[in-house]
Amino acid sequence: MTDSTLLLLQAAADTTHAYGEFPVIGARAFIWITAEVHLMFAAFVLGVPMFAVVTEAIGIFGGDERYDRLSKEFTRLLLVAYSATAIWGAMLVFGLSTLYPRFWAYLTSIFAPSMWLYAALFFVESFTLYLYYYGWDRWKEGRAKLGHWTLGILLNVWGTIVMFIANAWLTYMMSPPRDITPTTDPTTIKLWHAIANATWMPINVHRVIANVVFGGAIVGAYASYRFLAARTEEERAHYDWMGYVGNFIAMSALIVLPFAGYWLGREIYQYDQSMGITMMGGFMSWLWVIQAFLIAVLFLTGNYYLWIGMGRIPGAERFRPYTKYLLIVLVLGAIVWGTPHTMIADSKELAAMGGSHHPFLGALGVMSAKNTAVNLMILTTFLSFLLYRRANTRPVVPWARAGTIIQGAMFAVAAGVVLFYGIRGYFVEAIVRIGFSVYQVLAVLSCIVFVTVIDILMARGAQSLGAIRWGRMPPRSQYALFILAVTFTWLMGLMGFARSGIRQYWHVWQVMQDTSKYAATPALGYASKMISLCVLIFLSLVAFVFWLGGLAEKSTFVATGESEKGARHVGH
Amino acid sequence: MWATNAKIVGIVLGTLALYTLIANKIPQVQSEVPQALSLGANVTPEQLVAAGEKVYTGIGGCTTCHGLGERAPNLLTDEKGQGTIGARCGKREPGKTCKQYLYESLDNPTAYVVSGYQPIMPVMTKQLSPAQVWSVIAFLESQGGTVDVSASDIPAASAAPAASAAPAGAGGGLAGGSTDPQAIIQAAGCLACHKLDGQGQVIAPDLTHVGSRRDAESIRRKILDPASSVTKGYEKLAGIMPKMFGTMMNAAQLEALVHYLAAHK
After folding, report:
1. Contact state of A182 with B169 under an 8 Å Cβ cutoff
2. Could you give the CA distance from residue A449 to residue A455 in angstroms, rounded to a whole number?
3. How many other β-carbons are positioned within 10 Å of the β-carbon of residue B80?
4. DSSP letters of A297-337?
């Protein structure tokens, strides 16, 4: 145990109060806001480097300089965002140490060594970022460029480790190892034992993917703002393209996010079934209806953006008639996913409903129906991307017709597997039914992988039906990107509340009880106001960061000639 | 550009307002901190019912099984055409009134098991105070029946807050902190499901020779994390053993119990 830990423990023991108070808004609201806004900035500074290093790689290996410039443009924004992340992180630490000193002393007595490592890695990460950004123009050719790209990879590695460390602290609060009890002396708990708790790795994986989604969405919002403010066709074309790339990355990562979420949920159930029931069927049950609504907005808006985008692609009119069918599947899927099922209800509500489940809708609210719905929505969104991708090309390989038929058959088989197990799930026991979701997920993922591989092979030497007319997008398409960014951010806040709220009146689940006046977990109405406030603070600050970025340097849009040169294969 | 900025701000604020509005329109449920129940001698049936509903949906954990429609009978809704629990409780066992039947269900749940369900219900009188038990009975009676529970049903001792109803982690441990394994087993209600030395139920694995199939470490882990392993032949009951025993005991009690059981070769 370090001296600093001993000092903290001593301070905690000496104080007569385990809790402090913050003026006007209270201690809990202060911690809520600082933690959430810090987390949003952290997601931004972790997600955007992933975005940057991928786009830089496309620039290097694809020979399209626009991607390299796009990557640099976003790395510039990171410089200011890092400061904001650190400031909010410092506010959170000060808040915890002054408002929740007993809990903070407990946490530091277990995790102190990892906290020092965290600080050291943050330092290394910051300097890697400076090297990455300021070395951009100096190391732009040959091996030096590869070395520069390696810096970008390192930036992601440091950032990911930093996130994993912080995740260990918060997941320990959720799922401390079962041999740790309220009487366990925290100084005797082995660091790795506390880190490698039941929900640590599922949260790690979930957050890595979610950060990619978030980074893509914020990039999309930035691009849409610059598009709307553009004064020239070239500038508009550049930011239209950037918005497409951001949305593509966000939606691609979103497709796999539910699978990571499912894993996390399963681990929570396995760790403590009562916690799982609290989360899905207890006082938080209505939260998932709101989540379903938000996911529906994301799927519908993301697809809407793609469908509008097809208007600027010559040849896309061939596929336009199909969009209404895609829309029907998405809407029906969203309705099923949002169907309430196991809800906390009083006797009057139960009587009004005619039972613990609605006689008709209850059948749609079970996991068999919901898993089927979400898998079909994912397949539909993938089909939208596929149509978008093929819009201005006509394959010329001899096996093109056969390839398209095989692709269609793969979609049909995947949808068939999803529907088969969805229906069969009603006739088997719960433990068997849970296993069915694995087959559904595998069918959808296999379809996505194999259809994409076939499509890439089929696109070789494909006949172009005309270049994409970047910039020819109505303003409503750009507002859709804003809605996506706001919704992603709000969803992040909502899921943060779900993850943290299932601990209820425990700082550390069944180990350290919250005895403050804020121990009760608030209802969703109050939580939603807090989430909206956090999102507003974050987006306002991000807007300021973007504005600063614009002041520092001119945008990196390219001239018409370069735009046309790169246009044909963008999105292909 | 100002018009565009205004539109963007409008869209952002409008989207946030929409989500906030929807979240405020749905039923609002706050997770309260469980409180020890204290009822006076003049408690009314209405107060008992209100207190019972809180226990039922809160610390009692009843909704974990009752209400999901698969593990245990639905109590607040019609069950196979027999009405809600208040309407059907008096017809379950011949010669037993509704109140007697409900108390028996909480005190000795294996005495009568509803057809089609497994005998998995724990002994609730071991986990809840008498005041909490009787308030739950009053609440269940109110679901389609007549509430005849009164203060006279509740032992005088129950007027004081029950130690067992306090949230885990409050310290002290079961049985007043005693390290006598048999006192711990009695207080925790282990024999409601397990058999040990000829006593107790056979719902869960017999513990008489548990030391021959599990070492001390395995027993400790099983108590602290019941889901960590399942005894062969009891797979269908996986997840039934309550998780809170580890937090109800202090460390000395846990070790005393572990070594006591490990010695049962």
Report:
1. yes
2. 10
3. 11
4. HHHHHHHHHHHHHGGGSTTGGGTGGGHHHHHHHHHHHHHHH
Contacts of B76 in chain A (CB under 8 A): 347, 350, 356
> Which residues on B lie below 8 Å from A525 (Cβ)?
23-24, 28
What is the rounded CA–CA span in Å between residue A157 and residue A125?
A: 9
CA distance A390 to A152: 32
Q: What are the domain boundaries of chain A?
A: 3-392+465-563
- All structural domains of chain B, each given as residue ranges with its CATH number in brackets, are 45-158 (1.10.760.10), 174-262 (1.10.760.10)
**Measured between beta carbons, which residues in chain B are less than 8 angstroms from residue A281?**
63, 68
Question: In whole numbers, what is the pLDDT of chain B averaged over residues?
Answer: 78
DSSP β-bridge partners for residue B200: B195
Interface membership of A179 toward B (CB under 8 Å)? yes
Mean pLDDT, residues B72-85 taken together: 83
In angstroms, the CA A159 to CA A152 distance is: 11
Cβ of residue A522 closer than 8 Å to a chain B Cβ: yes
A272 near B CB under 8 A:
yes
Instruction: Judge whether A486 and B16 are in contact, CB under 8 Å.
Output: yes
pLDDT band at B158 (very low <50, low <70, confident <90, very high): very low
What does the pLDDT read at residue A256? 82
Q: How many residues does chain B have?
A: 265
Contacts of A506 in chain B (CB under 8 A): 169
Tell me, what's the ipTM? 0.87
